[in-house]
Design a protein that fits this description.
With 191 residues, the chain is an alpha+beta fold. The chain is built from five helices and ten strands, in the order βααβαβαββββαβββ. Strands 3-2-1-6-7 form a five-stranded mixed β-sheet. Strands 8-9-10 form a three-stranded antiparallel β-sheet, covered by helices on one side. The chain has a two-stranded antiparallel sheet with strand order 4-5. A hairpin with a 5-residue loop joins strand 6 and strand 7. The longest helix has 46 residues. The termini are far apart.
């Protein structure tokens, strides 16, 4: 799952049912905001591609729908579970959403969600993840810069050591260089 963009993978029970339609329409309505936050959004059910196409066309959905007729993805994500409705137990998809980062790590899991307002809640989490990733990128850049500066100081230290074979050089607390001979006497720039 690792890639260039974060992923939103939402599992829903069935095409063209009231709750699933509401959820898909809300993701579609927020498509511009999701595009700005840059995740790829996928809805998955055990319906066929033909069913998905009819569902998409009937409601003008822009969310990408993936077919999982054999239930492999549903099983892998643990959303195919026993459910009870109207006193009857049966297996079905528990409406759930997974937010996966660019490294392939699942950052958020939302189990047994209600369709109304769900897309907006997911959008908020994705936006927070994007901010976190931007801050992490800045920290990584600062760390790389510090490592480069440390490497440059190390090279300077090595050059000074090579320059004074009769002794050694150390960096003093003020950021300057103290050169010391073998007896420990300060030979340059006494402090």
């Amino acid at each position: 799952l690792a890639g260039k963009r974060n992923l939103v993978i939402y599992f829903y029970p069935k095409d063209d049912t009231p709750g699933c339609t509401m959820e898909a329409l809300e993701f579609t309505d927020l498509q511009v905001e999701f595009d700005a936050a840059r995740p790829d959004v996928f809805g998955i059910s055990r319906d066929t591609c033909t069913s998905h196409g009819a569902f998409r066309d009937k409601y003008g959905l822009t969310v990408q729908l993936l077919a999982d007729p054999d239930g492999e993805a549903c099983e892998a994500y643990g959303v195919w579970q026993e459910k009870e409705a109207h006193g009857e137990k049966r297996m079905g998809i528990v409406r759930s959403t997974f937010i996966v980062d660019t490294q392939g790590l699942i950052r958020h899991v939302l189990w047994d969600v209600k369709p109304k307002g769900h897309a907006a809640a997911v959008l908020e989490l994705v936006q927070e993840l994007k901010i976190y990733q931007a801050e992490l990128e800045i920290q990584n850049q600062e760390l790389q810069q510090a490592q480069q500066e440390l490497s440059a100081l190390h090279r300077e230290y090595v050059d000074l050591y090579d320059f004074a074979p009769c002794g050694y050089a150390t960096l003093n607390p003020k950021g300057g260089v103290t050169r010391i001979n073998r007896t420990g006497a300060n030979i340059l720039g006494a402090e």
